[in-house]
Amino acid sequence: MSRLKSCLLIFLALFSATESINVEVLNEEFTEALLLRPLPDRKVLAHFHFRSSAPPSERCGRHHHIFPKSIYQLVHKFQVREMELSFTQGRWNYERWGGFDPISSSNAKPPGVELWAEFDVPQDQVDYSWKNLTHALSGLFCASINFLEHSSSYSAPQWSFGSASGKLRYGTLPREAVCTENLTPWLKLLPCRDKAGLSLLMDRPSIYRGYYHSQRLHLKSDEFGASEMSTGMVLEQTLTVVLRPDTFSGQALQPSWSLSSLIGRSVSRKCSLSSSSNVYVQFEQNLVFEGDKLKEDGEASENAIPVGDGLEDNPLFELSLPPKRVIKELGNSQKAGSILHEFSVEDSNEFKPFDLELNWKLPVAWSCPQAPLQASRFLLGSGNERGAIAISMKSTKSNNVERTSSFDENECWLRVGIFQIVPWYVKVYYHTLKLFLDGEPQSSMENIEKIIVSPSEDKVSTGVMEMILRLPCSVNTAALTLEFDKGFLHIDEYPPDANQGFDIPSAVIHFADFVANMSFYDDSLKQVPILSKLQEEVPVVSYTEVLLVPLTTPDFSMPYNVITITCTVFALYFGSLLNALRRRVGEEERFLSGKGARKAGPLTLMISKLSAKLRGKPWESPKQSESGRSSSKYKLLAKVVLVAGVAAAWQFYFQ
Amino acid sequence: MAAASAPTPPSTAEIAEAAEPLPSKLENSEADCPRKTRPGLKRLALTFTVLFSFLLGLPFLLKSVEIYRSPLPFREIDDLSAAVESIPLQFPCKFRAVFVGTGGSSFDANELSVKIEHQMRKIAAKDSTSCGACSYNSSVSVVVENGADCFRSDNDFNWKCGALSELNRYEDSREYNDELFDEYLHSLVDKSDGRGNGGNVYTMIVVRREGQKDVSAVVGKYRHGWIVGRLSEEEAVKKVATVFVKVFVNGGKEEGPISGEFMPVGADGKIVLSFNLLNADPHDWIYDWEFQEIDDNLLAPILKYLKPLADISVESQVLYHTPKSSFSYWDEKLGGYIFTTKDLPFFVNSNEWHLDTSVAAGGRSKILHLVVYVPSATECPLQLQLPNGKISKSNGFISPMWGSVVVWNHAACLNGSKMETRVRHMISSEDMRKIFEVFIGQLRQLFGLKSKGIFRDASGTIRLLTSESGFTEWELDVLSRQHTCFNLLQCTTTLGSLSRLVQSLPRMIIKEEIGEQVRYSIEAAKLALSNVSAGIYDASAVSSRRARSFAEDAFYHPSMMSVSYYSFEHCFAVYSPFFLPVALHVLLAALREWKRYKQESRKFKAWKAKKD
């Protein structure tokens, strides 16, 4: 009790001292939220956001009632300062689903498993902690994260990922299959698991039928800092799914959907442990703009529709439930911001489950905000010997570029960061780095602002390239090529399905000058975790495709073949050498001629003729010899009988 | 090669053939060509050189394909297991009986000592000798105090005479209370004991009092007990021997179906006590506990106390949506939902109770789950019915080696009053105290001790005082003796299996680490054995634990598990394509040459003989 009191006291002291708006509550808290957003290509984005926080254990003890024990132990055992683990299946479609909003920047992840962690241990123990962490996580999440243990599978980025402390490690497993066995342990970390609350919506078949799903776990703790202002641990779990509603109105531009038709379930019980459970429906800026335009048109033509809040009578869509509140994003000069409709699932129960329905009134088409450049990566060259990696970036001509760079025209630069890990068996020649702007090769390095390259070391470490490009704003396309040689692996190092090829992990493209965040009129909204998350300034990040490099795969029975053939050659050599050394040529010839007198079949005749010819001696016709023939016949017979007898005995004894 | 291929037809042979126009069938070769020169040794020497060089190379080859096997001390392992397994491990214990106020009867101390020893052996013979018992060969020291007189037996452990002279006065002066008397005796006995003379002495004090009709026997929290009442010499001897054997040595255990072989201590000597508060349905109510407070106030002293036995750490979590998996029914008469002992195997719901294995408990530590189950509104109050139809007072049960469960019904549910949902309630500190009392009792049971405070025997009942820390000193002694014994047994069986495994797989690679661990384990086991014979319980428990954990480490070393040990078949498959054909050539050549040489030399001899 005394501890609780002290906690409260400290909390009060903090509160009065800082008087900041984003108060870090020094109590364990769990919140859940679901954000739904219609996407332009008839799909719907569902983004689940769960957040558990625990006060610093130094002051408030190490026993928690909501914060998961396993995560607490993980943090303390490996001294994790920050960690992010994501399991993803499918690829985020940056073109259609957007690349310039907080959700795509922090929740669009490369396929497979991505893990990065920063530790609060001395520099020389970071690798050790990382190895142990990977093992613990692989046990916790039923995944082969332990393959990230070897130093040739992870890297230490210098500045591409947040901090530049050098205690950060990054690794990906592009080929990890993600399924329910990873989701179940992830759900176990939630206090209500999938028994109540929004997580009830996680119907496994519908989630895994989706076009994209990414399950993410982000952990932040400042437990080990000496500062008094430590906020404890925050565990953020998100699940981002892109689904297509099942509708039979096949021709409509936008299908209408409800939660139960989209996911197949509805929220029938609230999670009594979460301090807030909200569902948000977000309509993007461009969609809102379309709606406004339509409304203005309608007003101009009819003047009948009263100018109200502009939401209940939205000409585009209709929501089945009245929203608890409507949150508007601050827009820019030309367009209003996106709109969030908030619904609470607090008063849902088994008889009145929460089920939201969205009906489109008019067909509408819009596009999502795009990142300034759209990156894609591919391989060049053919054959099993060498090739090249190309990263091509195409300008999306979005107005974000002009918006953020307020310099005059000839001083406008676009800074693009690229982080690329290459496994050691793809031997990249970094000196072959070429940059093309609008198809023109750039000879000088003036477009590269900063670059760090750490070449790979065979079987020890991966090759890492971190760079910041400075491109003129007017650029249409930029391309980067790097040549590489394909290495040879030891026979033990091939994975079981070597012929499938080897993956080069996704490159990370980040736009340092651009931040994807939403800002709202109301500052008090920061207390809702999902909204404060949306308001957080995160750099715009996008991931490229995973590359599949076919390497020369040997025939795996090769070692034995090699052994056999070398041994045979050696044996032949030894045998013939020995024969040659102990051979008596003259005697043999004499014996042969003596034997040749006894005429055998035509075959022996031919052989003897041939050998005589080869030796360059005149062939002497052998004389007939009846007795020799008969004796050789007997011998042959005896031999045949012997062999048959041996075979019979073999059969008899070994069957 | 060049010499061999050079066309040098030996003229002698041709002449010999030419000279023989009619080859006779019999003795063909000899008759064919009589040898006139001594057969040459060149080719013979050559083939034999090759053969011998191959033979010489063979050891080098075998050396090169040899695998590393760290030499394990097989003999020492056998010796150790023989030492531990052949005779049950017995500890030297020191017993002392003090007879106070025997009145006029003249007890001879030495005679009494012999009598008690005899009786103890008789009782012990009936018992199956459990692991970690005392050896009854050590003698019992007897002190007879009769007023100012003091007689000691010959084998006394520094008993100060007259220490108990105030005893009678104490009893007369104050109200008699077992606990207080225990403390008082402790202060007296402690004073009189020569501390630190190797091992602790178990003392029984027999106070003969004519006025008291019934005989009361009490065993205190420390290492002593007392018998007060009017009892004859034989009775006293019998009682004292019973207390020594059944209580101080065997821990007051009754013979149950589960023998005391279970000790919930992990192979690395660690126990993790994982406390779980399960809210069956948080929709009805949510309960929370002040675990930090309990951890600091209640658990920490106990864990400190149990330190010599095992390294215990505590963790806690609160889980929600965790219904039990067995059914309960409403019983009007008992006024509650009833689950019976038959339902217990199905009570623990392993699907929904995520009592995770702990990340903190790495390796082979033992986790004991201690669960507080808060039933939901549809099953509250939930009561456990014992087989005799009564309601269990503790409302909990244990599952050996897994842990224990306590069902806690909150007051509102018992009253039937309405609860406010959505609010986090705290379990009151009195309730927590009660729950943890049950937990400590369960922990005692998990360790194999009795949970009741009374020991019944043919000779009557003996009251056992309980300590506030849950475990009395003599109980800890019993546990650490057993612990040492089990550890040593486990260690020797593990090492024995290891040595058998290693010997049965002659081509298994054994790393140096394994050899080292085995050696350390043996060293620690030997140390434990020597400590046992010296009667130092704590040190022997610690070193036996070390021995076991090293043995387990060696046995479960990752390299032992590797599948790819270098088998003989593999070796054969790799080398046979070369060695088989080559060896064939070399051997055949050597054989032929040898034969030929013999034949030729015989021919030569024959020719020589003919010539001579």
Question: Mean pLDDT score of chain A, rounded?
Answer: 82
| Average pLDDT number of chain B | 77
* DSSP strand content of chain B: 15-25%
By oligomeric state, this entry counts as: heterodimer
* Helix fraction bin of chain A: 25-40%
Distance between the termini of chain A: 81 Å
For the sheet with most strands of chain B, the description reads: 8 strands, mixed
List how many beta strands of chain B DSSP finds: 20
The helix/strand class of chain A is alpha+beta
Unreliable stretches of chain A = 8-25, 304-311
**Major sheet description of chain A:** 11 strands, mixed
Please tally the helical runs of chain B, counting DSSP H or I stretches of 4 or more residues: 18
The side-by-side strand order for the widest beta sheet of chain A comes to 5-6-4-3-7-8-2-1-10-13-12
Distance between the termini of chain B: 38 Å
Please list the strands of the largest sheet of chain B in the order they lie side by side. Answer: 5-4-2-6-8-7-20-19
Whole-angstrom Rg of chain A: 37 Å
Main location (chain B): endoplasmic reticulum
Subcellular location (chain B): Endoplasmic reticulum membrane
Pathway (chain B): Glycolipid biosynthesis; glycosylphosphatidylinositol-anchor biosynthesis
Pfam families (chain B): PIG-S
